[in-house]
Design brief:
Length: 244
């Protein structure tokens, strides 16, 4: 088990490994979106939507990566640490952009209900996949307990683009807070109400925790459309189930 507590503690080589792994997670997430749109809307509509997504997504990603590299075209391993961290953040932002583009394209072509159904089902597949990828990256044992989950939460793609915190409640539980959510903060700046993400969050956090350790249970403290304090957008309590 690697003794890693923060992304800032990674070596340059480990940063390269994490960047590539996040690219892989992003590609798989992209594929899961396509598969679910096929399931919900059929192949013909899914292919139409895929083309629209591709037209929006690929130029956006290329532009972001080019800006990160500047005029430098050396391999990743030759990049400075600062460049590696910038590329890591850009990759995470591309993942979130892909997610939003899929959602909005389905929403505008069909309706909000179809987009939410696709989104929620996608999380049932992506969240366990990401948990397993992180578990492998950190070298966590099969049942790492709450401490293992704490580490894993710091290496989700969201951890690169959002602000989150952990509040210990004792040896048997802790509370995870999403203090600044990029999506919700953007809506707030535009004068929009919170996006009601609770239905996705319920499966997202539960399946992530259970994949890290099957004994861990997840309880939603609050998540939009629930009321929440200004200090966080959503909060989740994780506890370790006692075995007989």
């Amino acid at each position: 088990m690697k003794k890693i507590r923060e992304i800032s503690e990674l070596s340059d080589g480990e940063l390269v490994e994490l960047i590539i792994d996040i690219w892989h997670r992003s590609v798989v997430h992209y594929g899961l979106w396509f598969a679910e749109v096929i399931h919900q809307l059929g192949m013909d509509k899914a292919l139409d939507i895929l083309e629209q997504v591709r037209e929006k997504s690929i130029p956006l990603q290329i532009e972001r990566i080019i800006k990160t590299f500047g005029a430098q075209e050396n391999p990743l391993v030759k990049l400075s640490r600062e460049r590696l961290l910038s590329l890591l953040n850009a990759s995470a932002a591309n993942w979130l952009a892909n997610d939003g583009i899929w959602f909005q394209t389905v929403e505008f072509k069909e309706d909000m209900n179809d987009a939410k159904r696709c989104n929620d089902t996608c999380w049932t597949r992506f969240s366990p996949l990401e948990a397993r990828a992180i578990k492998r990256f950190l070298g966590l044992p099969s049942s790492p307990g709450l401490e293992g989950l704490k580490e894993a939460l710091k290496f989700r793609i969201y951890a690169c683009i959002n602000v989150q915190s952990i509040v210990d409640e004792g040896p048997g539980s802790f509370v995870f807070q999403m203090n600044n959510c990029r999506v919700q903060s953007a809506r707030k700046k535009r004068g929009l109400s919170d996006y009601p993400c609770k239905s996705a969050g319920l499966v997202e956090y539960r399946t992530f925790a259970e994949t890290i350790d099957r004994r861990i249970r997840c309880e939603c403290i609050a998540c939009p459309p629930d009321e929440h304090p200004s200090e966080w957008f959503c909060a989740w309590r994780f506890s370790l189930e006692k075995e007989d």
